[in-house]
Amino acid sequence: MIKDCIFCKIIKGDIPSEKIYEDEHVYAFLDINPAAKGHTLVIPKNHSENITDIKKEDLKHTIFVVKKLAPKVMEAVSADGFNIGMNNFPASGQAVMHSHFHIIPRKKGDAIKLPVQGKYEKGEIEKVKKLIIQKLKNIKLTSSQLL
Ligand code: 5GP
Ligand code: ZN
If you ran DSSP here, which 8-state letter would residue 67 be given? Predict the structure, then answer.
C-alpha cells in the first residue's frame, strides 16, 4: 500500500470503484474513462509500478484473472473480441503508477485506434535485432524460473 497511489486507495475502499471481481491477490474494476463499455482494469493488490518490478506471484495471479475475466466481460457487453493491454512507464501512456492490465472489449468495425504500424529502413531491422540480442546476453529461462 503506497500512500499516494490511487489504485491502492481503490483497493482499500478509500476511493469508490465499480468492482467486478476481488480475491486475496487481485482486484478488478471498471475504468472510469472507458475506451469501450466494459473496459476493465485488473490490478495486483500488492503495489508495484509496472511489469519490471512486479513480483512473479503477483503477475501470475493477475494475468490468470485477466484470462478468466476477459471472455466474460466480452460476453457481458456483447462484444466480439477484446484487447489486453499494459502500459509501462509514462512514455507508453501509463498514467497510474500501479501495475494494471486493461481489458478492452471490441466490436467488429468499432473506431478504436491501436498504435499505427511503421516501417524499417533497409538494414535497420537487423540492427535493432542485434541491439536487443546484446541486451539479452543469451538469456534462457528455465521452467522453474518461469513458473
Ligand atoms: P494507464 O494510462 O495508466 O495505463 O491507465 C490508467 C487508467 O486508469 C485510465 O484508463 C483511467 O481512465 C483509469 N483511472 C484513473 N483514475 C481512475 C479512478 O479513480 N477510477 C477508475 N475506475 N479508473 C481510473
Ligand atoms: Zn498502488
Answer: H
Q: Tell me the best of 17, 20, 33, 101 to mutate to test the pocket of ligand 1, counting ligand atoms within 8 Å of each CB and taking the most.
A: 33
Could you list the pLDDT tens digit for every one of the 147 residues in the chain? 788 999 999 999 999 999 999 999 999 999 999 999 999 999 999 999 999 999 999 999 999 999 999 999 999 999 999 999 999 999 999 999 999 999 999 999 998 987 788 999 999 999 999 999 999 987 888 888 777
Q: Please, what is the Cα angle at 62 between 36 and 42, to 5 degrees?
A: 25
Exposed/middle/buried for 49, CB within 10 Å: 0-12, 13-18, 19+? middle
Q: Which CATH architecture has domain 6-117?
A: 2-Layer Sandwich (3.30)
Which atom of ligand 1 approaches the CA of 87 most closely?
Answer: 4
Domain boundary assignment for the chain:
6-117
Q: Which residues are catalytic?
A: 100
Model-level pTM greater than 0.90? yes
Q: Which residues line ligand 1 (CB under 6 A)?
A: 6, 15, 17, 29-33, 41, 87, 93-96
